[in-house]
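Sequence of Restriction endonuclease subunit S (Ectopseudomonas toyotomiensis).
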Amino acid sequence: MTALLTDNLPLLAGAPNGIKKLRELILELAVRGKLVPQDANDEPASELLKRIAEEKARLVAEGKIKRSKLLVDINELDKPYELPAGWSWTTLPGAASYQIGKTPPTKESKFWDDSGQAWVSISDMEHYGEINDTSRKVSVLAQQNVFKYPPIPAGTLLMSFKLTVGKVSILAVDAYHNEAIISLSPFCGVSKDYLFSFLPSIALGGQQKNALMGNTLNSESMAQLLIPIPPLAEQHRIVAKVDELMALCDRMEARQADADSAHAQLVQALLDSLTQARDAEDFAQSWQRLAEHFHTLFTTESSIDALKQTLLQLAVMGKLVPQDSSDEPASELLVRLTNDRNDYAAIHKVAVAKPEPISGSDQSLSLPNGWAWARLCSMFRVITDGDHQPPPKSTDGIAFLTIGNVTKGYLDFSNCRFVPQDYFDRVAIYRRPETGDILYTVVGATYGRPIAVNSSRDFCVQRHIAILKSSKLISPAFACYLLASPWIYEQATQSTTGTAQPTIPLKPLRNFLVMLPPLPEQHRIVAKVDQLMALCDQLKARLNQARQVHEQLATALVEQAVA
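Predicted 3D structure, token representation.
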């Protein structure tokens, strides 16, 4: 069975979350007795468990451990699978004695001492690691009045069973621990390393119950945890083989991370060569280099996403479609946009935003023929945001969209809030989104996301969403691609204020620097970007299909391994 595993490591590791699943498979095979061969000369586990029963009786009689109040008849429990010859089932109390910890009153300083005895909480535990220090320590008074027993000795196995179930660590120092953790002392004949390897998966398979802050195993379900016990000699062989295979997984993970990093750097370097091309000839050469290795470069979702961002950057730089000298120049388009903006402002009694002057230092790139430098506010009639007053609540009426309703890439009216009709009627016309307008998130972790309004439904938005009122002189689809480009996102990031809640103020938003193409070229750019984005989506679809096939093959192999 080990040969089946090792011979197919590339297939298993290459599946989605492959190395994580491979680790789980190694543990699964180990506790089913399929990882190392059995040896008929080994003393059977049944004999081992008889001695453990005698040991438990002696320890109870000597008062060293308490008699379990939750004794379970092992024969009444459903066994999840058949054990190999020489193995036996027992429960957790049959394999180890364990003790639940305590927490002294946290608000009573007399029980806590920074120089006192280590006290372990779940946050101090590194899964499959050692505990060398703890964030809190208890005083001598706590040891005497709360715990009333000596510290748990270094070398003891700890496992969490509340909130985070199945986290294990080894104490490297003497310590106490809280009531979400048990300290385990395996009985003679049960390897601590064996329990350390397999208790997490066994605990996670127990009858967990929902608690306020996570899941938990109660005393009854913990006492019913079934432990498969091999002969002691086989326990040691299993632990050695698991350590060997887990180390192999570590090496594969490191190599995979290095390969992924190198791949991402290579893709980005080749994509950067497109956006940084000096002239048409340089661009053509860079594109040829990319095209020759297209299907070997764009083999991950992140690389395809990087390609999409580069396509947007090329689009707004005028490098994606050729210019046409018969197009009306953008300079003349800007004049018409100014007139349209002034007319709109006069009708709706709104102040006209004055774009900041564009200096020579702003013009860091050479403009394509017919293009013009402009500020973002020059492209739109108005750039504003939602009403700053908290809206009245209503169970129906007019939809009121928040950031959560626009960050999926479309207007999501499901589970939205509502405002009364009379409130909406008082909202200024220029603050009501209409078909063709652009919404742009300006607050929080999802700032900088544009959404084209493609619905004729009446709605309004919260102040965290900017409204860019469009006209027929600008392609809304081009405006969306422009606002989604790295060129604009970088300016958005540089303009944010605040750290916990980054915010793009309206003034810098209105003055984002853009390169404006003629209107006919805007439409040609949109057509080309739509075409290329569809190809990127096809790449992703094929990638996902290949992953599904890969996962199915890996799953079939796993099923064969554990059968």
